[in-house]
Specification:
Blueprint lengths: L2 H18 L5 H4 L5 E10 L19 E3 L5 E6 L4 E6 L7 E7 H4 L5 E8 L2 E7 L9 E7 L5 E6 L4 E6 L5 E6 L24 E6 L8 E6 L2 H6 L10 E6 L4 E6 L4 E6 L4 E7 L2 E7 L11 E7 L5 E4 L3 E5 L11 E5 L4 E4 L3 H8 L15 E9 L2 E8 L4 E6 L7 E7 L4 E7 L4 E6 L11 E9 L7 E3 L1 E2 L2 E2 L5 E7 L2 E9 L7 E6 L5 E8 L1 E2 L2 E2 L4 E6 L5 E5 L8 E5 L5 E6 L2 H4 L7 E9 L2 E8 L9 E7 L4 E7 L12 E8 L4 E8 L9 E7 L13 E6 L1 H5 L9 E6 L4 E6 L13 E6 H4 L7 E6 L3 E3 L5 E7 L3 E8 L2 E9 L2 E5 L6 E9 L8 E2 L3 E6 L3 E6 L3 E3 L3 E10 L7 E6 L2 E7 L4 E7 L4 E7 L8 E2 L3 E6 L1
Parallel strand pairs: 31-37, 56-63, 65-72
Antiparallel strand pairs: 1-30, 2-3, 3-4, 4-5, 6-7, 7-8, 8-9, 10-11, 11-12, 12-13, 14-15, 15-16, 16-17, 18-19, 20-21, 21-22, 22-23, 24-25, 25-26, 26-27, 28-29, 29-30, 32-33, 34-35, 35-36, 36-37, 38-39, 40-41, 41-42, 42-43, 44-45, 45-46, 46-47, 48-49, 49-50, 50-51, 52-53, 53-54, 55-57, 57-60, ...
């Protein structure tokens, strides 16, 4: 590409950056997709090492391939000098099927660099170089079924990657002949190019059986490369290969920032071009403990690593960079070498939004996109871009290569290198190459399924502010907002250089960081290691700042804006015995004696065998101490156990996080216990009794990822919802994944501590039907909430509890014996309870019947008689008989308490009305009335 063309490419990159920015919008990222990639399993490959190999031995999973049936995955293990086999028939439970040592096939120093599978054969690309100046390599053809090598082919140089065409009739192998970073070429800088011998490409024709396969060497012509503007055409350094359906091979020349296209049928170069550069803005380019997306880097060369075709007319590159560049994103080119889209700063901002940004790499290559793959799932093409340093894979819909649409982020373990789509089974595999047993960072193979629903990750993200996502890391402290059940507060530890608080909205999933608040002291940023946080109902915060030394530990009170108002040092006799594990968690309670600040010391003081919980009484500035007995660590593992949080449940009951130092499959103790402070104790350091309330380990395992070590934050929201969070350590010796946990309700988890008693008293144990009966309910242990009056499963009345009491008038009960209970339904910090049954017997109500009739009537003429029946509290129903002596004149049903009839009398009579009664009301009779009959 000419210099003019390179300038146009850079301008195109800047133009597409503007169109890329909206892809980070909440509406796109948080929309519930019909399908997404769900993590199924994370398999640590150290579990698949040969018998007798220590579990602590270095072992990695770098590049992977899958069998035609999608059920056997093969990965390269360069550190172990072997390839490993996994049975992924059940992708949620992958099983190790052993490994094949390259030492058995060649030499103890042989290293696999790539692997692929064609039919029943595994093709292993092996680096056998004696030195940088004597590069060599081979291709081993191994039967998949039994691991037996059937052929070995000399590659005449040091290989890197391998790729097949769509029909698996041709394989392309990049022969890199990589540079020596410690060598100084004549007239050049250390590690610079050129360094002979130069690399090339091998094409392997796969006609017939392995014995018939043949190589064709394709030299990358220096004149052609020079004409394309490649900086060092005699030393092309081919890195990654990909072939489209037309048989066109694309090769990245990473150190030379170039791309070459080759016709695999003829071996002829059809195009070579520079990958160009990008003017990066709105990034973090300083390793300073701050995620500040305000830096710029001009003319950053892309230096692409992985490359993949999008259809036959576009190429996508992951611009990892090497020694001169790395544009922190990925790019789509057309086959003329023109940029049609560039991620600009958006890939890095995905890392920031998801809490995965690695500030240790800010001054170098940032999130360092390295791996890239393209595949169709359900007919839609997706690009998968892996971040080597931020441990994630970003997924994009590339239906329109000029307008990729961000879909989701998949979390990985450290150093995701091999990205392997398995569309035939709706799966995606990631092999991660970083392994360091000393800090429990282990290489893994992760498996993800393309299936309906929204993926569980992320559980927490940040909103944008001033056009950029809020930077966040290492969230270890957690506190509820006392005035808003949907708001929490959290804080970063020293991974973020100066103390920073974050407001979290938990009204939806994922939770959202909506605001950051800088902690200041005298107007200047405060360098605090915030390990505990409490939002005060009175306003402001209490912070627990852990120091590098004992005396540096302090309780800090701020106002709502984060300005320090007060610092409280721990007593000298305590700090003298306090090592680097100090304050971990803070909470506060307030009673008639004032405010009390409670805090936890992570591990026992020197010379003690129990940890401590402390109380600082603000009114008189005194400290009081209580012992906490920790569970035993795993012997011989470098494990320790300590406290990581304290949260007030009520005035004298607290929840604490107790955790071990282990992670991954070794993790054992991630628990929340409760303790109750004794009212009075003569002991100098009373040891508290603890009760297991929540075993959080199963919740962490449910992510199907690498089980996180640092469960450090826990709180109870104003509505009683329970939340926890893991500290991702800013990706330092950690995967970087933050797990925000929703752990149910306080009344369920702390039922014993929040137990209540409910009593029921009725105003009468015997009553007539419809007589008013008042129920008085008293609830011990709860000031407010709701109660239900029940007869069996039926709710007969409801009422609100105020100051521990509720009074309710019962509805009319049917005649008979009733057994009633009162059920307190619970509240945010009170468990439900039920009273003992109380009985009431309801008898029929008394009635009164009166009769109205004329005193004188004419013989044989109709006479109207009216009976009125009354009863207390209700209107009687039933029938009334009108009687003349013993003779029944008429029987009439009551309507609205009255019975009306027409009778004929032939002689004077004594008339009366008799109410016959009902199921609820006793019968009654009127007084007799004399009726005189005249002719």
């Amino acid at each position: 590409m000419t210099p003019v063309s390179r300038s146009l490419a850079a301008l195109a990159g800047a133009a597409v950056l503007a169109t890329a920015l909206p892809l980070l919008s909440t509406s796109v990222a948080d929309a519930a997709p019909e399908k997404s990639f769900h993590r199924l399993a994370t398999y640590p490959v150290f579990q698949n090492v040969p018998p007798g190999t220590p579990a602590s031995a270095a072992t990695v999973a770098e590049i992977s391939a899958v069998s035609d049936d999608g059920r056997t995955l093969v990965y390269t293990d360069a550190l172990g000098k072997r390839i490993g086999f996994l049975d992924i028939s059940d992708p949620s439970n992958p099983r190790g099927e052993g490994s094949l040592s390259l030492e058995e096939l060649g030499d103890a120093d042989d290293q696999p660099t790539s692997v692929s599978i064609v039919g029943k054969y595994v093709l292993v690309v092996v680096d056998t170089s004696a030195s940088f100046t004597e590069p060599s390599g081979r291709l081993d053809v191994v039967r998949l079924s039994d691991g037996v090598r059937v052929r070995s082919i000399d590659l005449a140089g040091q290989p890197d990657s391998i790729a097949f065409d769509a029909k698996k009739s041709v394989a392309a192998i990049a022969i890199e002949n990589q540079r020596d970073e410690d060598f100084t070429p004549a007239g050049r800088a250390k590690g610079d190019l050129p360094q002979a011998p130069g690399g090339f490409v091998q094409l392997l024709d796969l006609e017939g059986g392995p014995a018939d396969w043949s190589l064709r060497r394709v030299d990358l012509d220096a004149d052609t490369l020079a004409a394309a503007g490649i900086a060092e055409p005699t030393d092309p350094e081919p890195e990654y290969v990909s072939i489209n359906s037309k048989g066109t091979l694309a090769v990245t020349l990473q150190e030379n920032n170039g791309i070459v296209l080759i016709d695999t049928a003829t071996g002829r170069i059809t195009k070579a071009f520079s990958a160009g550069s990008v003017d990066l803005t709105g990034i973090d380019a300083k390793k300073d403990g701050r995620i500040s997306l305000t830096d710029s880097l001009p003319s950053v060369v892309r230096e692409p690593d992985a490359i993949a075709w999008i259809g036959d007319d576009h190429l996508a590159t992951a611009n990892e960079g090497d020694w001169k560049g790395g544009s922190r994103g990925w790019t789509v080119f057309d086959t003329d070498g023109e940029v049609v889209w560039d991620a600009g700063n958006t890939f890095e901002r995905l890392a920031v939004k998801h809490g995965l940004y690695n500030d240790d790499r800010a001054a170098k290559k940032g999130s360092e996109p390295e791996g890239l793959a393209v595949a169709e799932f359900d007919g839609t093409p997706y690009a998968f871009v892996g971040s080597e340093r931020s441990n994630f894979v970003a997924v994009y819909d590339v239906s329109d290569p000029a307008k990729p649409e961000f879909v989701q982020v998949m979390p990985t373990t450290n150093g995701p290198e091999g990205l392997l789509p398995i569309p035939s089974r709706g799966l995606f595999a990631v092999s991660s190459e970083t392994d360091d047993a000393s800090v429990s960072v282990r290489a893994t193979v992760g498996l993800y399924a393309w299936k309906p629903g929204k993926a569980a990750f992320p559980s927490i993200v940040s909103d944008e502010k001033d056009g950029a996502p809020i930077g966040w890391q290492a969230l270890g402290a957690l506190s509820a907002d006392p005035k808003d059940a949907k708001t929490l507060w959290t804080a970063a530890d020293t991974v973020v250089k100066n103390g920073t608080l974050y407001r979290v909205d938990v009204s939806a999933s994922p939770a959202r960081i909506t605001e950051s608040v800088a902690v200041t002291d005298g107007g200047a940023p405060a360098a605090l290691d915030i390990e505990g946080l409490f939002k005060r109902p009175q306003g402001g915060f209490w912070l627990a700042s852990e120091g590098a030394t004992g005396p540096a530990n302090a309780l800090v009170r701020t106002d709502d804006a984060g300005a320090v108002q007060e610092r409280v040092s721990l007593p000298a006799d305590i700090t003298a015995k306090l090592g680097k594990w100090g304050l971990e968690g803070v909470t506060a309670t307030t009673d008639a004696d004032g405010e009390h600040v409670w805090f936890a010391l992570q591990r026992p003081l020197t010379g003690e065998d129990v940890a401590r919980i402390g109380r600082y009484d603000v009114a008189d500035q005194t400290f009081h101490w209580f012992g906490y007995e920790l569970e035993s660590p795993l012997r011989g593992s470098g494990d320790w156990v300590g406290l990581s949080e304290i949260t007030a449940i009520d005035a004298d009951t607290f929840a604490v996080i107790e955790r071990d130092k282990l992670n991954g499959p070794a993790a054992r103790n991630k628990r929340i216990y409760t303790v109750t402070i004794p009212k009075d104790s003569a002991e100098e350091l009373p040891v508290l009794q603890k009760r297991l309330a929540i075993d959080v380990l199963p919740h962490l395992r449910e992510t199907q990822g690498w089980t996180q070590e640092k469960l450090e934050g826990f709180t109870i929201a104003a509505d009683g919802s329970l939340y926890g969070i893991t500290d991702n350590d800013g990706l330092k010796d950690a995967t970087g994944e933050t797990v925000f946990l929703r752990l149910g309700k306080a009344a369920d988890a702390f039922g014993q501590e929040l137990a209540t008693t409910t009593g029921l008293r009725l105003s009468a144990s015997r009553a007539e039907y419809a007589q008013r009966i008042t129920a008085t309910v008293s609830v011990g242990g709860a000031a407010s909430g709701a109660v239900e009056l029940r007869e069996g499963a039926k709710v007969v009345a409801r009422a609100r509890v105020t100051a521990g009491k509720a009074t309710v008038a019962l509805p009319r009960l049917t005649v008979g014996r009733h057994s009633l209970t009162a059920r307190f339904t619970g509240s945010a910090l009170a468990a439900g309870s039920t009273s003992t049954p109380v009985s009431v017997t309801v008898v029929k109500a008394s009635s009164r019947t009166s009769l109205a009739v004329k005193a004188t009537v004419k013989r044989a003429k109709p006479v109207k008689v009216v009976a009125t029946v009354r009863a207390a509290g209700h209107q009687p129903t039933g029938k009334v008989r009108f009687m003349a002596g013993s003779k029944v004149l008429k029987t009439v049903r009551l309507t609205d308490g009255k019975a009306v009839a027409t009778v004929k009398l032939r002689s004077s009579q004594w008339i009366r009305a008799v109410y016959l009664g009902s199921a609820q009301t006793k019968g009654s009779g009127s007084t007799r009335k004399a009726v005189t009959v005249r002719r």
